[in-house]
UniProtKB/TrEMBL annotation:
Pfam families (UniProt xref): GDP_Man_Dehyd
Keyword Glycoprotein in record: no
Domain of life: Bacteria
Its job: Catalyzes the conversion of GDP-D-mannose to GDP-4-dehydro-6-deoxy-D-mannose.
Molecular function via GO: GDP-mannose 4,6-dehydratase activity; NADP+ binding
Lineage of the organism: Bacteria, Bacillati, Actinomycetota, Actinomycetes, Propionibacteriales
Name of the protein described by the UniProt record: GDP-mannose 4,6-dehydratase
Enzyme Commission code(s) on record: 4.2.1.47
Keyword match Cytoplasm: no
Gene Ontology annotations of biological process type: 'de novo' GDP-L-fucose biosynthetic process
Location of the NAD(P)-binding domain: 5-314
Similarity-based family: Belongs to the NAD(P)-dependent epimerase/dehydratase family. GDP-mannose 4,6-dehydratase subfamily.
Signal peptide (UniProt feature, chain positions): none
InterPro entries tied to this protein: GDP_Man_deHydtase (IPR006368), NAD(P)-bd_dom (IPR016040), NAD(P)-bd_dom_sf (IPR036291)
């Protein structure tokens, strides 16, 4: 039975990946951070077969222990401070966890693997936020990186450190440059989930308006369940490499609002939306749109869930949850 260790097990992607690997017959382990982590219960409920290890990306010895106790064939580094807006206010913590944390887990894997550094396959969650002030449209694996936030800068550090460990030590270390990916499990601070939850609450008469930032921003949004499949496929390749994972389509926040409100029968959504500079960012990324042709050609991967299906799935899930009183 192959064994996998996942950091970021409590997050959206960690949960989908754990489900996927369990379905494939893996023994799955997860690193969980902090005393009384409020998301532990969620992990234990959704994926009870995952074995949890206390650890933190900023604590090398805790990662060494998790590796010793799980003996994985594959390590997926999904742990990060992942909210761009927060990263300006907490730039140091973001750099420590999202950036230096990658060095820690790479070093732990290298030391644990001993004389055969490629014996443990490693996945790094790189991000489209690394393209920031985009130097090319659409963005591919070759596009020059120009991050626009402390989060993006930290992801660039982790990305190059992963490449560096692959080139320096012959590790089987791959990076997935994932564009935005959403689901009903997306954190409520991210715009798709913020909108799906508010639209469901407005439909049910539980709230009247939603306060938003920049409505002109555009993103290339895919479904997280599709994207974790790409992570797994990367680690099944004979050689490690970097891959862009995206849909190749972009939509604006206005389109997101139109689809979400439209799904519950509200066409004049503007009367429910107020803009507040508090939700604007010091800097925005430009037109993020991914060219995933390498993933399609090499991994045989393509997204299954389109934009409207994704947003309506999220609104339906929030409607069901609110009706159930969750
Ligand atoms: P990101 O791409 O990782 O930053 O994902 P987000 O979902 O946080 O933000 C996507 C885009 O939505 C950004 O360009 C934001 O400026 C824009 N946006 C507009 N209003 C909001 C809002 O109220 N909350 C969030 N999170 N983003 C918003």
């Amino acid at each position: 039975m192959p064994t996998a260790l996942i950091t970021g097990i409590t997050g959206q992607d960690g949960l989908y990946l754990a489900e996927l690997l369990l379905e494939k017959g893996y023994e799955v382990h997860g690193v969980i951070r902090g005393q009384n982590n409020p998301r532990r219960e969620l992990v234990e409920r959704l994926v009870p077969d995952v074995k949890l290890h206390n650890g933190d990306l900023t604590d090398l010895s805790s990662l060494m222990r998790a590796l010793r106790d799980s003996e994985p064939d594959e390590v997926y580094n999904l742990g990060a401070v992942s909210f761009v807006a927060y990263s300006w206010e907490n730039a140091f913590v973001t750099s420590d966890v999202t950036g230096l944390g990658v060095l820690n887990i790479l070093e732990a894997v290298r030391l644990h693997a001993g004389s055969d550094p490629a014996s443990i396959r490693f996945y790094q969650a790189s991000s489209s936020e690394m393209f920031g002030k985009v130097q090319q449209v659409p963005q591919s694996e070759e596009t020059l990186l120009w991050p626009r936030s402390p989060y993006g800068v930290s992801k660039v550090y982790g990305h190059y450190m992963t490449i560096n460990y692959r080139e320096s030590y012959g590790m089987h270390a791959s990076s997935g440059i994932l564009f935005n990916h959403e689901s009903p499990r997306r954190g409520e601070e991210f715009v798709t989930r913020k909108v799906s939850k508010a639209v469901a609450a407005i439909k049910l008469g539980m709230q009247d308006e939603i306060v938003m930032g920049n409505l002109d921003a555009r993103r290339d949004w895919g479904f997280a369940g599709d994207y974790v499949e790409a992570m797994w496929r990367m680690l099944q390749q004979p050689t490690a490499d970097d891959y862009v994972i995206s849909t190749g389509e972009t939509h604006s926040i206005e389109e997101l609002l139109t689809v979400a409100f439209g799904h519950v029968g509200i066409s004049d959504w503007r009367k429910h939306v107020r803009q507040d500079p508090a939700f604007m960012r010091p800097a925005e990324v430009d037109l993020l749109i991914g060219d995933a042709s390498k993933a399609r050609d090499v991994l045989g991967w393509k997204p299954q869930v389109g934009f409207e299906e994704l947003i309506t799935m999220m609104v339906d899930a929030d409607l069901a949850a609110l009706k159930a009183g969750w």
